Amino acid sequence: MPRPLILHPDRLLPADPATRALARALYAEVAGLPIISPHGHTDPSWFAGNAPFGNATELLLVPDHYLFRMLYSQGVPLERLGIGNSDADPRAAWRILSENYHLFRGTPSRMWCDWVFAEAFGIDVLLAADTADLYFDTITAALATESFRPRALFERFNIEVIATTESPLDTLEHHVAIRASGWAGRVITAYRPDPVVDPEYIDGNGGFRENLALFSSLTGEDCFTWPGYLAAHHQRRAFFASMGATSTDHGHPTALTANLSPAEAEALFRKVSAGQFTAQEAELFRAQMLTEMAGMSIEDGLVMQLHPGSFRNHNAALFAHFGRDKGADIPSRTDYVQALKPLLDRFGNDPRLSLILFTLDESAYARELAPLAGHYPCLKLGPAWWFHDSPEGMLRFRRMTTETAGFYNTVGFNDDTRAFLSIPARHDVARRIDCGFLAELVMEHRMEDWEAAELSQGLAYDFAKQAYRL
Amino acid sequence: MPRPLILHPDRLLPADPATRALARALYAEVAGLPIISPHGHTDPSWFAGNAPFGNATELLLVPDHYLFRMLYSQGVPLERLGIGNSDADPRAAWRILSENYHLFRGTPSRMWCDWVFAEAFGIDVLLAADTADLYFDTITAALATESFRPRALFERFNIEVIATTESPLDTLEHHVAIRASGWAGRVITAYRPDPVVDPEYIDGNGGFRENLALFSSLTGEDCFTWPGYLAAHHQRRAFFASMGATSTDHGHPTALTANLSPAEAEALFRKVSAGQFTAQEAELFRAQMLTEMAGMSIEDGLVMQLHPGSFRNHNAALFAHFGRDKGADIPSRTDYVQALKPLLDRFGNDPRLSLILFTLDESAYARELAPLAGHYPCLKLGPAWWFHDSPEGMLRFRRMTTETAGFYNTVGFNDDTRAFLSIPARHDVARRIDCGFLAELVMEHRMEDWEAAELSQGLAYDFAKQAYRL
Amino acid sequence: MPRPLILHPDRLLPADPATRALARALYAEVAGLPIISPHGHTDPSWFAGNAPFGNATELLLVPDHYLFRMLYSQGVPLERLGIGNSDADPRAAWRILSENYHLFRGTPSRMWCDWVFAEAFGIDVLLAADTADLYFDTITAALATESFRPRALFERFNIEVIATTESPLDTLEHHVAIRASGWAGRVITAYRPDPVVDPEYIDGNGGFRENLALFSSLTGEDCFTWPGYLAAHHQRRAFFASMGATSTDHGHPTALTANLSPAEAEALFRKVSAGQFTAQEAELFRAQMLTEMAGMSIEDGLVMQLHPGSFRNHNAALFAHFGRDKGADIPSRTDYVQALKPLLDRFGNDPRLSLILFTLDESAYARELAPLAGHYPCLKLGPAWWFHDSPEGMLRFRRMTTETAGFYNTVGFNDDTRAFLSIPARHDVARRIDCGFLAELVMEHRMEDWEAAELSQGLAYDFAKQAYRL
Questions:
Q1: Helices B423-443 and B391-405, interaxial angle, to 10°?
Q2: Residue ranges with strand state E in A175-294
């Protein structure tokens, strides 16, 4: 007999009864606030075209690297899940997920999925081998209905604003189409220049030099010259801003910044744009571009985000066969103190700059990031990111940053996801964890209850709007 | 008046009453499960010869580097404890431990010892200066009885299987003797090749080159040639497997692996086997040997264990006077992401390989180890190790690995000890801590109670059997 | 209407009712113990001259880099707070703090300040925009009274002994004056030789070579020769000891030590004293001087303290404009295992040496510091330091060090502050957190209640006296 699927109203709140009562009261006030999603990876074509999503597997499993990486770690070949293999039977793939759903016990994927199943689709039994087909059929049938089209879900999810992330080479045609459609949903873009900033960039469409050629043709600038290249960035940033962008995003291997003289920067650009560079020169160029981008942000007001520290595509064979973003990105040790100094020496005290820092290296929270954000006016801390976007991960973030950086040098929550249906669940987890943490502070008389109420509202809604200038 | 010695039935369970009740219920189901001890350092001669242990000091103090390192840190000379000094009076040494037993407050040694005193020996007063002689006499008298012989204790402790750890140079005569004796206790070996893999290895019997000579005479291969050396490993691994081994164990200074061409590997071997090598070449050779061992594991099915990150014999004067394993091994920062890539590039997606990773650098749990184990099919995480084999250490391990790697990419508990009498206490601590952690997840509605019950059984028993192919 | 200012009697004690009751009982026994403050930065001239403090801003805001760094991080120019700007209106500066007091929610500054406001000044409303003037007037008026003079506060705070920190170039005239005055308050100095040990030292009065010249004239030694330089240290250490010093303090960028031969050390000194050295040579000289200082400590009995790992004056523009100690010191990753080995190889087993280690890199607690202190007889662990001198920071320290180093290899609390009025609050936070941690251990039956009572007394009072030989 199937087990019931239960979303307990007190889930994720602290176990101590008095603390839980306080947390519950705090949470009740923020649970229904609109969603501010200032950083994520949803596909703007969903909202432009508003076409129905496909089936359960195509929507929920194939794009979710949290799910298929765990299955892969336990020996399930990716091909059987339909990844890099359009011949796979979606129902058979779904059955594999169902039979292995116990693997996700104790992980945030389990909580996000259960929310999607229960709240978005109204399913009341737990996913398992014996409910696989019921799930597949229920979800697939629902997806064919009007109320599961992208715009309907956007409205049902109470999303006030959502940012997607695009390359400077993107035409933003979907954002243009959304605006032209007259639909009131606020979907904005963000400027993610890695494909034209990283000399070592490579994807299915080519690499850095191919991208510079595209960058040139898109902007009319000669992007193989340093002035033309910089002018092209200026131009595209302005276009992105006109499509609602309030931020840029930088996904570098490290947090290294540089502060070269114009002549040095130009000489370095000549090397990398000619494809004649060492790994060290590539790193230096990325470093210099962070500082260039900071300079542009001071002019155009786009908030910078830096997401360093992921060793991308660690599994060489998997990358060769399946390409990027297949669950094989592994965090590594990340320094901020030396790395950010060149940028901070140049712009760190400029009140117009806002740079939001993320990390996958939690050892930097208390040691580097909180002290930096608790001093420099331009710095703020992004929320617990990626592998740390989880109950324990969020709690560690608060425990290790709050005492030095305070709450007000943080920026609320980012869902950072392409898993559209789980967005409310992710924000809900963050709200619950923050309310639980605040309730603890009240119980230990480190804060009054009315202060916790102000902060829970800030963390759930206000801080993200302010930090991202939304 | 002596203080009572109390082992509270709820020890180590969470303080919150409702959580404790849940934890107690989970624990009740696993408290009596047989012990699977897949990694440890008990002496097989105990079980072969079944001779009585000596006195309290000889059995409990002299071999326990947790105990004497703490005493040494507070100024007690090791000689007075009988270490490197057979003239020391065992009773006088025991009195020193007793007078200083307060030093262990808050440490796992205290919990393990108290269990041994209360459960194994039935003592009901706390160890202190005024009970030192009572303890010494009670324990020493008990050890002379039949029921305290090694095999009797093995049976009383409900040990289903225990692995010892031997060098390839070991004849395994005690394992042969155990099998020949007809005794039903399952004592198996594990293949720990460090003495013939580490060019910088040194102990009282000599170093790497002396060991290669022994390796040659033991196997009939010419272990000063690369093919002969590899053949000798193949031969000894097969012999170890015939003596029950299901695993190998590698105690390297770092986790570095390499993937040299056969010609490069052979050239490197020529240097190290000639004793003509730099520190870097020694490190590269160890690195290459991990990859060679992984290749052999794919063939013969032995599970690999990697225990990196200990700076051995940090105290130079102590090492010169007393030798290895005197409590002066200090953990250091350990990288896994870059270090393991060569091995993983070669074998990481092979379903036949199983590599269990340990660490002394907890900053790697959430940043590196959980993401690696949550992706690569060959990787699993060993339990909290050595200094972290403790209530707080185990909880940190679960909190920092579960959300990314899940429970099912972990392998249950290892006691990793030579302190035979404390083995049940160590497994009991792990079971209690895991049940407490699971109870928390249930209380916060991150998991259902029946799921926690399945997992507590897995963590206490099943996972170790499966992971070690026992 | 102003909010009430409430110091709850149970603040910082664990929320679980039974644990709180235990913690409250432990705390009741230690709350009133005298304060031992073996490491800090109060100004001895306060106690020598006993002049009244100025106004609220001058006493509480301008010297407190925890306060103004947070305000600066949120965009408040330091000049407006009166920092580097004697024209600023103290009342206007105080209003800025008041309006922004919410920024400190969840930080230790909030708890320390609230204690000062409520306990030292008797204020019963919360600091905010609408109470700014009330605060400024109340505090400033109180400071003009006899009972708020430095010596009166010292006595009211129940300070048994306090150590200040001085450079070897300091004449200690204030300490001489205190002793000459006949006042019974015990104010001692500590020897902090960084200005004459660090070849890269620089402050408003000059750098290392200027300091060597002063060192020469003060001691009559030729401090541009290695023997003269060492003799000058000997002489000043003896003088400091005669002014009550029982310790030295070393604020190095890293924990590196060296063990050069006398000839090598002398050759290196020739370079650095001539101002002709590389960054690496400066680092090596600092490293060698730690070992030299350890040798002198063995002779004269001064306890050594090592505070490494702060990247000083990270904000270049701020440093150029405002100088040192302006909240822009940022911790960085710190190694101890390799770094301390040269010193430990030379002196690590000498029972006369006592070296207290601090860190800003919490990842070293369990990995390096607890194992080192749990082995070497000369090593002890200083308390959670600087950014980690906070409720969560202190708890992390205990959780990550106790199981390996025990309690008895730690040294109680240091307030390490120049914020004189907050000293009782800081010790009170430490006592509460330690009692809460001990209560947890009792609740989980990891320790008996009478053991926790012994330890809470030790942590609050005895350990500091013993470790600092007071």
A1: 50
A2: 187-188, 202-203, 206-207, 247-250
Whether residue B288 is found in the same domain as residue B344: yes
- Chain B residues in contact with A102 by the CB 8 A cut-off are 408, 451, 454
- pLDDT at residue number A206: 84
Task: Indicate whether A102 and A175 sit together in one domain.
Answer: no
| CA-CA-CA-CA dihedral for B102, B103, B106, B108, to nearest 10 | -110
Q: Do A317 and B345 touch (CB under 8 A)?
A: yes
State if pTM tops 0.95: yes
Beta-carbon separation of A402 and C317 below 8 A = no
Same domain, B115 and B171: no
* C-alpha dist (Å) from residue B306 to B256, B294, B362, C23: 10, 11, 15, 42
Size of interface A-B (CB pairs under 8 A): 132
- Domain, as residue range, for A84: 54-146
Do B89 and B158 lie in one domain? The reply is no
Residues of chain B neighbouring C19 (CB-CB closer than 8 A):
15
Instruction: Express each pLDDT in C264-283 by its tens digit.
Output: 999 999 999 999 999 999 99
Query: Which one of C98, C125, C146 terminates a domain?
Result: C146
pLDDT tens column, A405-438: 999 999 999 999 999 999 999 999 999 999 999 9
Burial of A87: CB neighbours in 10 Å, binned 0-12, 13-18, 19+: exposed
Let me know if residue A11 belongs to a domain: no
Q: What percent of chain B has pLDDT over 70?
A: 100
Q: Are strands B247-250 and B330-331 parallel, antiparallel or unpaired?
A: unpaired
pLDDT reading at A340 higher than 90: yes
Query: Which residue, A146, A164, A199, sits at the end of a domain?
Result: A146
Candidate from B344, B349, B444 with C-beta closest to A11:
B444
Residues of C in contact with A349 (CB under 8 A): 315, 317-318
CB B40 within 8 A of CB B164: yes
Chain A, nearest residue to B363 by Cα: A363
pLDDT in tens, B280-338: 999 999 999 999 999 999 999 999 999 999 999 999 999 999 998 899 999 999 999 99
Q: Is C41 within a domain? A: no
Same domain, C308 and C441: yes
Q: Sheet containing A355-357: which strands, arranged edge to edge?
A: A247-250, A303-306, A355-357, A379-381
Domain containing residue A83: CATH number: 1.10.2020.10
In tens, the pLDDT along B8-29 reads 999 999 999 999 999 999 999 9
Interval B193-234: pLDDT, tens: 999 999 999 887 889 999 999 999 999 999 999 999 999 999
Nearest to A120 by CA among A137, A143, A144, A87: A143
Residue A443's closest chain C neighbor by CA?
C15
Report the domain count for chain C.
Answer: 2
E-assigned strand segments in B99-246:
159-163, 187-188, 202-203, 206-207
| Residue A421 located in a structural domain | yes
Predicted confidence (pLDDT) at residue C196 exceeds the cutoff of 90: yes
DSSP B368: I
CB contact under 8 A, A105 and B351: no
Strand pairing partners for C161?
Answer: C36
**Is the ipTM here above 0.90?**
yes
- Identify whether residues B58 and B188 lie together within a single domain: no
Residue C221 lies in a domain: yes
Q: Pick from A6, A24, A71, A105 the residue to mutate for testing the B interface (most B CBs within 10 Å).
A: A105
Q: CATH number of the domain at B199, please.
A: 3.20.20.140
**Angle CA A234–A235–A241, to nearest 5:** 90
Q: Are residues C163 and C85 in the same domain?
A: no
Same domain, C138 and C165: no
- Cβ distance B392 to C407 less than 8 Å, yes or no, reads no
d(CA B249, CA B166): 9
Q: At what angle do helices B65-73 and B90-99 cross, to 10 degrees?
A: 70
